[in-house]
TrEMBL record:
This is 4-carboxymuconolactone decarboxylase. Residues 34-116 form the Carboxymuconolactone decarboxylase-like domain. GO terms for molecular function: peroxiredoxin activity. It holds the Pfam family CMD. It comes from Limimaricola soesokkakensis.
Length: 125
């Protein structure tokens, strides 16, 4: 491994949790291994590992972008990750209010429903 891959792997584990990363690694095949390497290096090593903004801020940005683009499964994943990033429920709501204005009320409405369900699941666990 190289330093970017090492940093990406460590950051991915810190943000998403060992269980998620272990599951993704166990499910990896020869077909998607290049994709897993790409996201580990690019998303987690080059972007999330930067020290220019906090994990909390990065989490809020990611949630807003995923909600605005309608990436529901990834949105739920990153809402669960708020337990590790320091982003609060209020932070998530603020991000989704921005989605309503800049990406559309239907996207925000759907994302709020996902957030409520995900937070309820987190509380129940």
């Amino acid at each position: 491994m190289n330093s970017i891959t090492d940093a990406g792997t460590a950051t991915r584990r810190r943000v998403l949790g060992d269980m998620h990363v272990d599951r993704a690694e166990a499910a990896k095949t020869g077909f998607d291994a290049p994709f897993q390497a790409l996201i580990t290096d690019a998303a987690w090593g080059h972007v999330w590992s930067r020290d220019t903004i906090s994990d909390r801020e990065r989490s809020m940005l990611t949630i807003a972008l995923l909600a605005g683009l309608g990436n529901d499964a990834e949105l739920a994943l990153h809402i669960r990750a708020t337990a590790n990033t320091g982003a609060s429920r209020d932070d998530v709501l603020e991000a989704l209010l921005h989605v309503a204005i800049y990406a559309g009320v239907p996207r925000a409405n759907h994302a709020i429903a996902i957030a409520k369900k995900t937070f309820d699941e987190m509380e129940a666990a």
